[in-house]
Amino acid sequence: MKIDPSQLAALSAVLQFGTFEAAAHSLRVTSSAVSQRIKALEDRIGTALVLRGSPCTGTAAGLRIAKHAEDIGLLEAQLARELALDADNGPVRLRIAVNADSLASWFIDAMAAVDGVLFDLLVDDQDHSAEWLKRGEVSAAVTASSKPVTGFDAYPLGTLDYAATASPGFMLRWFPDGVTAETAARAPCLIFNNKDNLQRQWLERNVAPGLAPPAHFLPSTQAFIDAAAAGLGWGMNPLRMVEADLRCGKLVPLIPDTTLPVPLTWQVARVMAPALAEVTRAVQKSARQYLTQNR
């Protein structure tokens, strides 16, 4: 079934910007024109595609069709490059799932190395980002799973090493005689969100299984570091991001030499891999420079 490109563009713009007015401004048409195109597309498909609200969101069908429009733009851009054609449609949009710590530490360098792409990032835990691939809602993702999702190619990137850190004052208060199962069960820890199990993994490896200490929830990589330095709790921080704080004594490890390596993998839709080759190369280059490489 062939879909009118102007209707696809209207749907994508509404879901991207959240309102018909903003979508109309980006497409340089009237809000009425956007509304008419969406209605015509919904009539053609036979189901609602946009949930009108503030902001507007997509139904399952709407999100799937918008993803299809994104893929078409990427493939057309690839064809233009291969045939040395003039590309006058502007940058293409690419939706990627990436974990917050990668975004805060090394992934932006990869984004900056790619021209002609507008990134639409969906931030999720590395253990769960593969679910976005399975649902077909992103074209690529940084995952903690080395097993490729069906229809995707997987490229190992290296490991993001984490260290359990806290402030010196926190250590004196909660761990004056060292980290034990008893003290670790009482000392507050920092958790990114309900998907974050790094603290539990570290405790199981280095202290004892089954511990459930009281926790602060802080969904921000930088706030995680700041909170640890302020003595709010202990948390798993990317080692490279806290090296300076460890050297100057602002932070200290709970137990020396107990880093937790988290292997990361870049997964990209096989059908889209040629169109995303430049992005993949940029991701691999940035990862080699920042992540620990397996020898």
Structural write-up:
Strands 3, 4, 5, 6, 9, 10 and 11 form a seven-stranded mixed β-sheet that branches. A two-stranded antiparallel ribbon has the order 1-2. The protein contains twelve helices and eleven strands. α1 crosses α3 (31-45). The chain is α/β, with parallel strands linked by helices. A hairpin with a 5-residue loop joins β1 and β2. The protein is elongated and about 70 Å long. Among the domains are: 1-87, Orthogonal Bundle (Arc Repressor Mutant, subunit A); 160-260, Periplasmic binding protein-like II (D-Maltodextrin-Binding Protein, domain 2, 3-Layer(aba) Sandwich), CATH 3.40.190.
State the helical fraction. 40-55%
pLDDT < 50 stretches: none
Largest sheet, strands/sense/barrel: 7 strands, mixed
CATH superfamily of the domain at 160-260: Periplasmic binding protein-like II
Q: What is the terminal separation in angstroms?
A: 49 Å
Oligomer: single chain
Number of continuous helical runs: 12
How large is the radius of gyration? 23 Å
Describe this structure in a few short sentences.
The protein is of the alpha/beta class and 295 residues long. Among the domains are: 1-87, Orthogonal Bundle (Arc Repressor Mutant, subunit A), CATH 1.10.10.10; 160-260, D-Maltodextrin-Binding Protein, domain 2 (3-Layer(aba) Sandwich), CATH 3.40.190. 45% of the residues lie in helices and 20% in strands.
